[in-house]
Amino acid sequence: MSHLIAFPTVITFDDQEKSDYKYLAYIPDLDGYTQGVSLADAIVMARDYIGTFSLDHPLPEAGQVSFEAEDSDVVTLVDIDPDSYKRELDKTPVKKTLSIPSYLNDAGINEGLNFSQTLADAIRDKLHLV
């Protein structure tokens, strides 16, 4: 079940910043900062910041901290499903029972093939996952 939370985020463009990361994102409820190379990247990085924070800390109720923004700032909501974020990072192996033709089994054994790794690679490729 999806449990989306949206945190107010203030994004400031800093043309004086010497790096490519000219967009500073501030999440007041977490008192946390991150940066991006574009407005969209700053939003993605803010979502990742919130997700990473949720791995070690309970998330507070969103929108409880007051803040001020400059007229030139972008104030937006950054949403995240913390449970989905945690699941995406879960690398716990899961045992699967499957059947393959005997000749593929024999050929794989002869080549020293790691069947589990091969299956995981094929699933990632099929689903276009990293």
TrEMBL record:
This is HicB-like antitoxin of toxin-antitoxin system domain-containing protein. It comes from Pseudolactococcus reticulitermitis.
